[in-house]
Amino acid sequence: MAFRPPFTIALSLLALSLASGAQAADYPSRAITLVVPFAAGGPTDVVARTLGAELSKELGQPVVVENRTGAGGTVAATYVANAQPDGYTYFIHHNGMATATALYPALKFDPLKSFEYVGEVVDVPMTLLARKNFPPSNMAEFIQYAKANADKINLANAGPGAVSQLCGSLLQQALGVKFTTIPYQGTGPAMSALLGEQVDVLCDQTTQTIPHIQAGNVKFYGVTTLQRISKLPDAPTLDEQGLKGFEVKVWHGIYAPAGTPAQDIAVFNKALKTALKSPAFTSKMADLGAEIVSEDRQTPESLQKWVKSEIDKWTPVLKAEGMNVN
Ligand code: MLT
After folding, report:
1. How far lies 301's CA from each of 112, 119, 202, in Å?
2. Entry's PANTHER family (predicted)?
3. Ligand 1 atom closest to Cα of 188?
4. How many domains does the chain have?
5. Atom 8 (ligand 1): residue with closest C-alpha?
6. Are 253 and 120 in contact (CB under 8 A)?
7. Which of 28, 151, 183, 212 would give a disulfide with 217, using CB separation of 3.0 to 4.6 Å?
8. Interval between CA 19 and ligand 1 midpoint (Å)
9. Separation of 187 CA from ligand 1 center, angstroms?
10. How far is the centre of ligand 1, averaged over its atoms, from the C-alpha of 158 (Å)?
11. How far is the CA of 274 from the centre of ligand 1 (A)?
12. What pTM does this model have?
């Protein structure tokens, strides 16, 4: 090995630290991609696009939403896990990040090792809906009708790993029935099918359903949280209407490929915290029934701890139900 005098080594180290300092100061210097694992126009997409607009202002570069659909979000997660960890690819995902391991035994990424964590974003309640001319007009009638006609009922969802699928499965378990499930690439297209009366029932997030509930485009039976929600104060929970303990709440986090520089994550996280306080984001989320997470949850550490706890919670439940897709 060639001898290098100490001052040469010192100069090299100085050059290296100046280079990485310059990179941090310049970051981001071009457009950032925010990958969404479900179809455009759906609930995850709405959160991503509203947030992306605010992040663009903060970061001074466009944040471009890219929808990569399929297999309940695992197509997008696999893509992001293998993307260049250069600070220009981020990923928004929900509970599916924690249920994927149990649902897809042949998964090509590890939710705990393949990503850097950026922070949590919003919590979103779900709602149980049916097409406008579906016979039951309230939850009591829905329960009765579902038990008597299960084999005739179509339930739309966004595939295994989607929260619409989780909610629909828990609903069928609670009622002791089996509907015919129709998977879509996201609940955006599933909602179009419901509005077009091509499917009967859909369990979906308020970020997509509130405008349709308010416009009277659908039958609405209740919310999936244990407490009523302030945006729909008159809407009863499923728990209070006979499905004791029924609860599905959706949480969203932001990730980057493992190996993304810590200083880039710090810049993105700072922009995220500001975006989550912006009037445009807060008012749109309030209109859609979503709750912005508290500041202590807007951190990489909090999201990582949460994903781990959700994997520990859901893996045994889903395995016990035999709910894997391979
Ligand atoms: C979507 O954005 O389409 C939904 O979040 C899919 C789902 O998980 O139900």
Report:
1. 12, 8, 34
2. BLR1237 PROTEIN, TRICARBOXYLATE-BINDING PROTEIN
3. 3
4. 2
5. 162
6. yes
7. 212
8. 41
9. 5
10. 6
11. 25
12. 0.90
DSSP 166-198: HHHHHHHHHHT--PEEEE-SSHHHHHHHHHTTS
Domain span holding position 173: 125-241
pLDDT along the chain (326 residues), means of 10: 43 42 75 98 98 98 97 96 98 96 90 98 98 98 98 95 93 94 96 98 98 98 97 97 95 98 98 98 98 98 97 85 58
* Ligand 1 atom 9 nearest Cα: 164
Point out the ligand 1 atom lying closest to the alpha carbon of residue 96.
8
Query: Do 199 and 155 form a contact (C-beta atoms < 8 A)?
Result: yes
Residue owning tokens 């180290």 = 13
Kindly report the CATH number assigned to the domain that includes residue 267.
3.40.190.150
Where does a domain end: 241, 257, 289?
241
Can you read off the two tokens belonging to residue 35? 């990958």
Six-digit token string for 253: 């986090």
Q: How far apart are CA 20 and CA 265, in angstroms?
A: 14
Q: How far is the CA of 253 from the centre of ligand 1 (A)?
A: 14
In the structure, which protein residues have their CB atom closer than 6 angstroms to any atom of ligand 1?
38-39, 42-45, 94, 158, 162-164, 186-188
- Half-sphere exposure of 198 toward its Cβ, with a 13 Å CA cutoff? 11
Collapsed DSSP state (helix, strand, coil) of residue 123: strand
Compute the distance from residue 13 Cα to the ligand 1 centre, in Å. Answer: 47
Ligand 1 atom 3 nearest Cα: 186
pLDDT of residue 19: 42
- Closest C-alpha among 55, 6, 51 to residue 32: 55
Q: Which atom of ligand 1 is nearest to the CA of 190?
A: 3
Calpha distance 76→91 (Å, rounded)? 8
Burial class of residue 175 (count of CB atoms within 10 Å of its CB; 0-12, 13-18, 19+): middle
d(CA 168, CA 130): 12
